[in-house]
Write a structure and sequence with these properties.
The complex is a heterodimer of chains A (about 100) and B (about 475). With about 100 residues, chain A is mainly α. Chain A is built from three helices and three strands; from the N terminus they run H-H-E-H-E-E. The longest helix of chain A is centred in the first third of the chain and has 19 residues. Chain B has about 475 residues and is an alpha+beta fold. The relative contact order of chain B is 0.09. Classes of the chains: A mainly alpha (about 100), B alpha+beta (about 475).
């Protein structure tokens, strides 16, 4: 079932993206094209195949609990558009939408 | 008439989500140090800052600690556990998602037993899973927010109670958290520090008319950083919801924050519904297989749990269940008690002293028992000195306060402060001088005016500056009275 413009707006809001009407229409068309491709997977016969979250035959890829040096703070903050008092500075986000 | 109407009674339902930061050296998916406090953004790397191209690798010990906790909470361990992405957009998450566990948590289907004023109750636990902590947001005077990612990626365990909820009152909610904290600290998984936020609890609360099968709309409370706050917060929220329903309003599904100063909950945010988190399997992490042999090994290494310690303390030392509860509140309390009681041979006095003077001083100084300078050896020495009459109970308090403050040995402090006078000759001399100074009082006392006894004891205490052994003074006075009456 194709998605609607409302679905696109809702997902955009969850990602805090502002879309113009034109942009929303373009995204709707693209997402629906993508969904169609996934729909084609329904044609496959998956009878008797266990669901899996991964295709690689690996498990327990773990590291030992040992601390290593972290980045110098200046370096950690270097990619931030705004940094103050040793912190990343971001606009105030209102939680209630 | 409103006065004749029977008011609807409401029953509460309380579920609980508890988050505990795990006691590892490094973070969950990178080698940055897992610690509290410090300068902001000094324990960060490309992984926990969510920089492009970085990849997480799970911490083996963190997985093991969650298995340990799940076993201590009587859970089944999932033979295959996996990680999932929980997507939401907020600056405390640098990646735009939190790595968590959705449909294959490490532990599920457990329980723990609590006791409250309403009696014993088994609280069922739906799941125990592993995830990562978020960064911390602080508000700047300019109106912006500052983000510190030191906490981002710290291994975090989430423990969720079963639905429908087993708990119905603020007392039970507190008892659950007290017991859970005792277990988690006992097995070395969490330090249990609610005031530092390493153990956080979010109760969800609803009320419904008595006899109604359908549950009411629930709210969630955050920002509860002490047992007392949990009790007050739940109590307040139950009352708030009942008041809303009584006046015909509805309860809105929302997250409320506890305001300790005002003693009430205030609206924080309207909660996003679950599917909006768009969970999906974390492609960067492989599943974790936990076989029976591994589970058996971790189970075999579990220490004595608080419930077992509690039963043993009652049996072995003749304590009441309530006393045993207090002394098993953390493993450190149990160890302290057993060491001190073993050394001085007086479990009763040890228990009384720990629940009284030690607890009082720890509370006043806001210290944990582990940080206490006066250890169990010091307490045992102090109690032995009281028992053999070297110092009075009253003096012991002062000696203990000094020992607590400085860590100096109680014997040394007592020696400096002057020990109790129990010697019959020395006390006899003091008694003679007091009788000589108060002949009328002494006559009255010998004639049977018992009220004068206190006065005489008081005079002797005054002369010895409180060091006279009161029991010995009483004995000597009685002896003289018997002699004087002859």
């Amino acid at each position: 079932m194709p998605l609607t413009l409302d679905d696109v707006r809702r997902v955009a809001n969850l990602a805090r993206l502002e879309l113009t009407d034109d942009e929303a229409a373009v995204q709707l068309r693209r997402i629906n094209e993508l969904m169609e491709r996934f729909e084609s997977l329904r044609e496959l016969d998956v009878e008797g195949i266990e669901p899996t979250a991964h295709s690689a035959p690996l498990h327990n890829v773990l590291r030992e609990d040992a601390a290593r040096p972290s980045l110098p703070r200046d370096e950690a903050l270097s990619g931030a558009p705004d940094a103050r008092e040793g912190c990343f500075a971001v606009p105030l986000i209102l939680e209630a939408s | 008439m409103p006065g004749t109407q029977v008011e609807t009674r409401y029953v509460g339902s309380i579920g609980m989500e508890v988050h505990a930061e795990l006691l590892t050296e490094s973070k969950m998916f990178c080698g940055c140090r897992n610690a509290f406090g410090g300068e902001p953004n000094t324990r960060c790397c490309p992984v926990c800052l969510g920089l492009p191209g970085s990849l997480p690798v799970a911490n083996r010990l963190a997985v093991e600690l969650v298995v340990r906790a799940a076993l201590a909470l009587n859970c089944a361990i999932s033979p295959i556990a996996k990680f999932d992405r929980k997507n939401y957009f907020y600056p405390d998450l640098p990646k735009g998602y939190q790595i968590s566990q959705y449909d294959q948590p490490i532990g599920s289907g457990g329980w723990l037993d609590i006791e409250s004023e309403a009696g014993p109750r088994r609280v069922h636990i739906r799941r125990v899973h592993l995830e990562e902590d978020t960064g911390k947001l602080m508000h700047l005077p300019t109106g912006d927010s500052a983000v510190d990612y030191n906490r981002s990626g710290v291994p975090l365990m989430e423990i969720v109670t079963e639905f429908p909820p087993d708990m119905s009152s603020a007392d039970e909610a507190r008892a659950y958290l007290v017991k859970l904290r005792a277990i988690l600290t006992c097995i070395g998984v969490s330090d249990g520090k609610m005031e530092q936020g390493s153990l956080r609890c979010e109760p969800n609360i609803s009320v419904r008319p008595e006899g109604s099968a359908a549950f009411g709309t629930k709210t969630e409370i955050k920002n509860l950083n002490s047992f007392r706050a949990v009790h007050r917060g739940v109590q307040h929220e139950l009352a708030r919801q009942v008041a809303l329903l009584r006046r015909g309003d509805r309860v809105a599904q929302e997250t409320r924050g506890w305001n300790e100063a005002r003693g009430e909950t205030v609206l924080q945010r309207v909660k996003e519904v679950e599917q909006e988190y768009r969970y999906f399997p974390e492609p960067d992490l492989m599943p974790v297989h936990i076989d029976d042999a591994r589970v058996g090994l971790i189970r075999a290494r579990l220490p004595e749990l608080p419930d077992a310690a509690r039963v043993r303390l009652v049996d072995q030392y003749g304590l009441s269940p309530a006393e045993a509860d207090l002394l098993t509140q953390t493993a450190a309390w149990t160890a302290y008690f057993e060491r001190a009681a073993g050394l001085c041979g007086n479990a009763r006095a040890t228990a009384n002293w720990m629940m009284g003077e030690l607890a009082r001083l720890l509370n006043a100084a806001n210290l944990e028992i582990e940080q206490c300078k006066a250890g169990p050896e010091a307490l045992a020495d102090l109690l032995a000195m009281v028992e053999n009459g070297r110092i009075s109970g009253k003096m012991a308090k002062g000696v203990w306060e000094a020992a607590f403050e400085t860590g100096e040995a109680p014997a040394a402090i007592a020696a400096r402060q002057g020990e109790q006078i129990s010697d019959a000759d020395a006390l006899g001399a003091v008694l003679d001088s007091v009788i000589a100074a108060q002949p009328d009082v002494w006559q009255a006392l010998c004639a049977g005016d018992e009220k004068k006894l206190t006065f005489m004891v008081g005079q002797i205490m005054k002369q010895t500056r409180g060091k006279a052994n009161p029991g010995e003074v009483n004995r000597l006075l009685r002896e003289r009275m018997a002699g004087g009456a002859q």
